[in-house]
Amino acid sequence: MGGFCYKVKAMEESGVCMYKIASPGFFFGKGKISKWFENYETLPNVPTYLTYGIFPHKDAPKNIYNLWEGFRVERKEFENIDIPDKKEDIEKLIKPILDHFMITSNHHKGIYNYQLNWFAHKIQKPGKKVGTCLVYLGIQGTGKTTICEDIMRETMGCNYIFSTNDIEKIAGKFNAHVRGKTLCILNELNGKDSMPLIDRIKEVITRKVITIEPKCVDPIDLPDFVDYCFTTNNINPIKETKEERRFQIIYTSDEKKGDAEYFKNLYDNCIDNKRVIKAFYYYLKNHIDISKFHPENDRVIDTEEILELQEMNRCRIEEFADYFFMSDTYRHQKRDGSIFIISKFTLKEIYSYFKQFQSDSGFNNFVNDKTFSHKFSKYKKWINCFKKYKSNGSVKYEIDWDEVDKLLEKQFAEEDDN
Hints:
Layout: E1 5-11, E2 17-22, H1 24-27, H2 32-38, E3 48-49, E4 51-53, E5 64-66, H3 87-93, H4 95-104, H5 109-124, E6 133-137, H6 146-156, E7 161-164, H7 168-171, E8 183-186, H8 191-194, H9 198-206, E9 209-212, E10 220-223, E11 227-232, E12 247-251, H10 260-271, H11 274-286, H12 304-312, H13 316-326, E13 332-335, E14 338-341, E15 344-346, H14 347-360, H15 369-378, E16 386-391, E17 394-399, H16 401-417
Parallel strand pairs: 4-5, 6-11, 6-12, 7-8, 8-11
Antiparallel strand pairs: 1-2, 1-3, 9-10, 13-14, 15-17, 16-17
């Protein structure tokens, strides 16, 4: 019976009829509640469900109980709250919220628009993942968690948001915490925890189906509508590279750090104000055009801070490859007073050069020769400048230095133009 859930109809002492969802383990040994389970088969027309989840704006499969009730602002408590119709009037009402979006964007218009489009996608298309992750970087007290932890929680509802400081609850095996959620927030992200799990983190950001694995219960496959926001004050919290397409790095301005009056006004007048929250919801829903929004392609990746982070996470093998091809250290060899151009190298030779390069740079950890060969050969920048082949059972490289020189001339010309 493990894994089955029941929609149990029970009469409260007050006489109010209500429904509860629970697993079999919840019923046993729970006093009066166990009687509900004993009497289950005698209750008329009580359906049985395999599990529960959310299916926004559509019917769930017959064996899955749909917990979707709409976002908080769509519910009865907001029904009689009037808000302006015109976009400019709504923008005036929610200006403090929009201003905070700009502050978290460090006044970068592109990142500001990306944030609004990202959250508008969550509101307009709750049944479709955005597929990228917002990573907020900033020192403590700058309000980097205010948008996802507070503004969106008030807008979407607590029941659709999961917040944690434990990366294992997102990337670990037991992940039942994210079932029924549309937004997951990971606070205090740090590189020590994220780097070993980076492939798993990337997978959860883009996956379309989630395998829920509650403890002691059989795994269950469900559609995955969860998107992720990370917050951190760590200098290098995630492996952001030029090739990475899943993260939008957002450096938060520190201009409001310690400004208690600013945050008090923001919370009292906006976040705790149902009229402003409702207006913000409808601004995202009706006044942000996401028809041309492409979450991967529209990411802002060329700010000075992001480029520095990419350089920090640059692959050491790629750094060595640039040095290998761009310097004369390996191209020329002196023999008997004459200088020769060397174009053929064994893997063993190039790998030994890499290890020396690492040691000279203060790095003592080395990948093995197979991993080195794979990454060296796949580095797109120089991929047309050499030929890799096998001879007498060993891997060898033949370098086309003329092609290298052409590529370098083109690179230098582009730098001069800029």
